[in-house]
């Protein structure tokens, strides 16, 4: 499953799954899980560069990714962990100014969440290496400054609940990724900075990712 | 490319690309293309049944699908048709009551657009069979009653413009589908009905799809 980023078809990203993060953006804490889709073309693998599209204010959201190991629909909570093959550290990059406009106008989030390189992703971590996915520390630095430092203990909806909910709407397939939401501390990132994120269990680091940030070259430019 | 539904990873669906349809839902006519993502798990192929999730008011939107033939990013309008391998008739099924709530709350459209079976799709049509994709008739019937009867002449943004816009945000890959928006006449569909849709060029039918409509059995139920 090392190469789930190559054959997986879906990235399902949960929003507002940490109450401190919901509050920092002025959002209501939800009563059921809410999610959106990111395209797999947004994966950014080791060795690449994180691209900031022109005119976009881009925020980092460090998250635990859950890698699905077999196909399932209407998966019950009690069975859900049997569908998990492993984990990966991910960052759900978000063009916050575009997302704010979309939210106000009632439009989809797909552009603000879906640019190429907007899902930096770490190596596949086999399930056996994380005994309790609800006790994982997630951290993120811009250059040398810590910006996010949270724990999956604070998730509002746990992983079995997320799998049951998503699979009651859309079939999950081997290689799909569920991003489980970000803890608080999100903020903007700029070309010239370096973004580093890590996933620790009991103070042991299991995954680190590091990417230089550049301006996206190309046709896209957001103008108010 | 007959099996683009098997290996393709993205369905990019354009919204409000026909002004009569934008008006019928009370939406502003857009000044640039807007899109959302549907999961490929939502494809419904010949022989299947269209499922209506409990508590959902589900609308039909008949659309011309464009099948991408090679990978590209920042594809210019002038080159865009070289990336088109063919076409397919599609229906962008929408849980309209869930979408209305999402729009009011500024939440993503992924649930309302993403249920299993929510993208009924016809056979691959090679590019050579449709000389002018901007002169294609699209029609849809519920049982024997015609509900939609439009032409791609009325698109606000043409196919090259859509390809340039989407690929300036997210890379397009071989097998991806772009649904180009629906003409007016959308409306609800209920278990027990039969939905039939067709794609005609100069009064010649190139594709017809037909599906029985059933209630979705499973865990999902929408309650206000
Ligand atoms: Mg997808
Ligand atoms: Mg997120
Ligand atoms: Mg549509």
From TrEMBL, chains A, B:
> Which one of the record's GO molecular function terms can you name?
acetylpyruvate hydrolase activity
Note whether Glycoprotein occurs among the keywords: no
* BP GO terms, sorted: carboxylic acid metabolic process
Question: What residue stretches are annotated with the Fumarylacetoacetase-like C-terminal domain?
Answer: 10-199
Please give the GO cellular component terms listed in this UniProt entry: mitochondrion
Sections of the chain in a coiled coil? none
Keyword line: Metal-binding
The record's similarity note reads:
Belongs to the FAH family.
The protein here is known as: Fumarylacetoacetase-like C-terminal domain-containing protein
What species was this sequence derived from? Glomus cerebriforme
* Lineage summary: Eukaryota, Fungi, Fungi incertae sedis, Mucoromycota, Glomeromycotina
């Amino acid at each position: 499953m090392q190469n789930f980023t190559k054959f997986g078809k879906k990235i399902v990203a949960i929003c507002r799954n940490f109450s401190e993060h919901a509050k920092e953006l002025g959002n209501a804490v939800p009563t059921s899980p809410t999610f959106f889709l990111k395209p797999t073309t947004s994966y950014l693998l080791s060795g690449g560069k994180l691209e900031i599209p022109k005119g976009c204010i881009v925020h980092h959201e460090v998250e635990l990714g859950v890698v699905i190991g077999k196909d399932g629909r209407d998966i019950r909570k009690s069975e859900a962990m049997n569908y998990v093959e492993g984990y990966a550290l991910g960052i759900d990059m978000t063009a916050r100014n575009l997302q704010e406009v979309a939210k106000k106008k009632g439009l989809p989030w797909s552009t603000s969440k879906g640019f190429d390189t907007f899902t930096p992703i770490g190596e596949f971590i086999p399930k056996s290496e994380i005994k309790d996915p609800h006790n994982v520390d997630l951290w993120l630095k811009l250059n040398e400054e810590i910006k996010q430092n949270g724990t999956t203990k604070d998730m509002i909806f746990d992983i079995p609940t997320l799998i049951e909910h998503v699979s009651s709407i859309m079939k999950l397939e081997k290689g799909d990724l569920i991003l489980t939401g970000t803890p608080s501390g999100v903020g903007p990132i700029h070309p010239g900075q370096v973004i580093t994120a890590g996933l620790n269990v009991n103070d042991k680091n299991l995954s680190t990712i590091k990417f230089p940030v550049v301006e996206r070259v190309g046709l896209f430019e957001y103008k108010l």
